[in-house]
Design goal:
By secondary structure, the chain is mostly helical. It has one domain. Helix content is about 75%, strand content about 0%. About 5% of the residues have low confidence.
Length: about 250
């Protein structure tokens, strides 16, 4: 693993860990602003997907990647049967949650995080397979930002959720640590996979699957029913602010 890939793995791990700890310390304040944080981050992620990730994905003119994009969309639908939608910022369960249900929710979340981390260390191989000269430098940073903007609010949501069911400090730290490690572990495994002869040039396929998953989450959140409530205008303004911010920071 090259120095840059090691740095990205470390950033992925420690940033999630730090946000989780800060959420535990500032629990009440962050919980209050959770809807705004989720809407803003989702708009940022959608902007990055539409303006950078998807154009880069299909710049190879490989139409087969569209099937992997669709596969990612379907995989995320299936994962939500386990995670109960915690990747969206809330859990679709009511009443007391048993340890078994909690573990199942976390397994769904961890698998999601693992898969979206898989492409992060594989872009260098795409240079040789698709003659994309800058994908291993500028694009790897763009994809890292995309994953971070998605994962950091979810780290906060995880801690808020665990607090809501009165989890112990040990349980919160264990789940946070495992969640922080899931995407870096995916990155390590992804790099190993694309170095297997059978999967040579599979980097963009992994990226397409991850994009499909992220597209499902972002579009579902933006069009969710709660935007028909009293906070509809506030949500629309927050989403617009996220889109404009994404364009200003990453496209201009």
């Amino acid at each position: 693993m090259c120095q840059k890939n090691k740095l990205m793995i470390e950033v992925l791990f420690f940033s999630v860990l730090i946000v989780g700890v800060l959420t535990e310390i500032l629990y009440k304040k962050i919980e209050k602003f959770k809807p705004v944080i989720i809407s803003f981050s989702v708009a940022l992620v959608l902007t990055l997907l539409c303006t950078h990730v998807l154009p880069e994905l299909f710049s190879s003119h490989n139409h087969e990647l569209s099937y992997y994009l669709l596969a990612g969309f379907i995989i995320q639908i299936l994962l939500e049967l386990l995670s109960k939608g915690i990747e969206h910022g809330h859990v679709h369960l009511h009443g007391e949650i048993s340890n078994k249900e909690l573990i199942i929710i976390f397994i769904g979340l961890a698998i999601h995080s693992f898969i979206e981390g898989m492409p992060i260390n594989t872009f260098e191989s795409s240079v040789h397979q698709h003659s994309i000269t800058n994908i291993d430098s500028s694009f790897s940073s763009i994809y890292l930002f995309t994953i971070l903007i998605h994962k950091l609010p979810i780290a906060a949501v995880l801690i808020i959720f665990l607090n809501s069911i009165n989890s112990s400090y040990l349980k919160k730290f264990v789940f946070l640590f495992l969640f922080a490690a899931s995407s870096p572990l995916g990155g390590i495994v992804g790099e190993l996979v694309v170095n297997i002869n059978f999967f040579k040039g599979f980097s963009l396929n992994l990226l397409a699957i991850s994009c499909g998953m992220l597209l499902h989450i972002t579009t579902l959140l933006i069009f969710e029913d709660h935007h028909n409530s009293k906070g509809k205008i506030k949500n629309i303004l927050t989403i617009l602010a996220g889109i404009i911010t994404g364009i200003l920071i990453f496209s201009i």
